[in-house]
Amino acid sequence: MTSTAMSHKPVRWGRVAVHLGCLAALLVMLYPLAWLLATSLKPADEVIASLDLLPSHLEWSNYSTAMEGVNDVSIWRLLTNSLLIAGGAVLGNVISCSLAAYAFARLRFRLRGPLFAFMIATIMLPHHAVLIPQYIIFNQLGLVNTYWPLILPKFLATEAFFVFLIVQFMRGLPRELEEAARIDGCGPFRSFFQVVLPLTRPALITTAIFTFIWTWNDFFTQLIYLFDPDKFTLTLALRSFVDASSTSAFGPMFAMSVIALLPIVLFFLAFQRFLVEGMASSGVKG
Q1: Please, what is the angle between helix 234-245 and helix 75-106, to 10°?
Q2: Distance (Å, rounded) from C-alpha 53 to C-alpha 33?
Q3: Residue closest to 191 by CA, chosen among 107, 269, 262, 277
Q4: Which residues contact 60 (CB under 8 A, 6 or more apart)?
Q5: What does the pLDDT read at residue 278?
Q6: 256, 241 in Cβ contact below 8 A?
Q7: pTM metric for this prediction
Q8: Cβ density class 188-224: b for 16+ within 10 Å, e for less
């Protein structure tokens, strides 16, 4: 009787409709990626003239041209520059934001509340509003056309969003662990590095993922500070690619876009489990 009842279990059409809707939304979101991959293999005359998703034939020479780089700078140099800037930004944000977050979440000091509120208020400040003062400072220091303006601010805990993210995570950690460490003779720094920091790994990896993606895709800031083609990143090289070869380089440009997208995808896939865990934990702790 049980098997008969199970065989006649009614279909939940509402759940089916939800799954179909999610599948349709997934296809819509993945279409730009599919279009990018297909266009990177199209001949030059089909990139603009044809609306078909699939190319008439695969033009693998687009990738060979993209691998040559632009302005006599190889793609490996461009990749190295992008990785250097993104890696420095990740290291700076993880170190500085975790230290600032520990101070706000665990330490007691005068004006802690107003300073934390002021830091949170800076999230609403547009990046372009501080770009000119920052450029003047770095120009007077002789650091323009170097990587320092893109990396150095990350070591000063200037990303208030990540500080807030880590603060929310640290506030959910039991204080008994630090009290036990304090009884054993640990000071604030030792408690931070040996007790709190290892437990904050999900929030730190979340910070690293977002920092890497945002820095890798950053175009405007890199355009302001970098002039020498040897210091260009992949993002700047894409613009130079079009400027150098005009409309005939659309195929190689999209091929280079696919190459530029691969490190972000690999970085995200490697740490996506920690991203979900860190965002979920930081959102419910308070």
Answers
A1: 140
A2: 11
A3: 107
A4: 41
A5: 54
A6: yes
A7: 0.82
A8: eeebbeebbbeebebbbbbbbbbbbeebbebeebbeb
If phi > 0 it is left, if psi is from -120 to 50 it is alpha, else beta; for residue 125 that is beta
Contacts of 76 (CB under 8 A, 6+ apart): 69
DSSP 195: I
Burial label, 245 (beta-carbon count in 10 A; 0-12, 13-18, 19+): middle
- Write the pLDDT tens digit of every residue in 66-76: 888 887 888 89
Q: How many residues are present in the chain?
A: 286
Phi, psi (degrees; rounded to nearest 5) at 246: 60, -150
**pLDDT beyond 60 at 279:** no
Q: 73 - beta bridge partners?
A: 70
Q: What is the overall mean pLDDT for the chain?
A: 84
Q: Are 173 and 192 in contact (CB under 8 A)?
A: no
Whole-number pLDDT of residue 286: 42
CA 123 to each of CA 127, 214, 230, 256, 264: distance values in angstroms, whole numbers, following the listed order: 9, 15, 33, 33, 24
